[in-house]
Amino acid sequence: MDYKQLPIWRKANLMLVTIEQAVLHFPRYHKYTLGSELRQKAMRICQCIHRAVTRRSSKTKLVQQLSELIDDLKCQVQLAKELHAFKSFSQFQSVVELVVGLGKQAGGWLKQTRAELPLNKGR
């Protein structure tokens, strides 16, 4: 399966680009601290999706890690809003909607992968 065709990958990629564009407009004080962390976390989310698709033996663990990374990113995005790092509320709203949507997709994927575990098949 080509991971680039997956809806979760496309949404994660769009989120990464949207965060990159948002951080460009952060005030200098936040651009190189919080902005850098947001960019790195978004990149790690994309990497985690790729690994979860290509490494079947550790898929559940990687999808769990993905879900945790998204939760961490939600907290950081909220902090950036509270610190007025975003250029506008609509920019924050665009980012947070992507992150929340991605969290829902990851949650569904996690539920599915847990249901596929051999221990749960006998139930």
UniProtKB/TrEMBL annotation:
Superkingdom as given in the UniProt entry: Bacteria
Family annotation (Pfam families): bAvd
Occurrences of domain bAvd-like (ranges): 12-112
Record-linked InterPro entries: 23S_rRNA_IVS_sf (IPR036583), bAvd (IPR055360)
CDD domains: Avd_like (cd16376)
Gene3D superfamilies: 23S rRNA-intervening sequence (1.20.1440.60)
SUPFAM superfamilies xref list: IVS-encoded protein-like
Name this protein carries in UniProt: Four helix bundle protein
Organism field: Pseudoalteromonas viridis
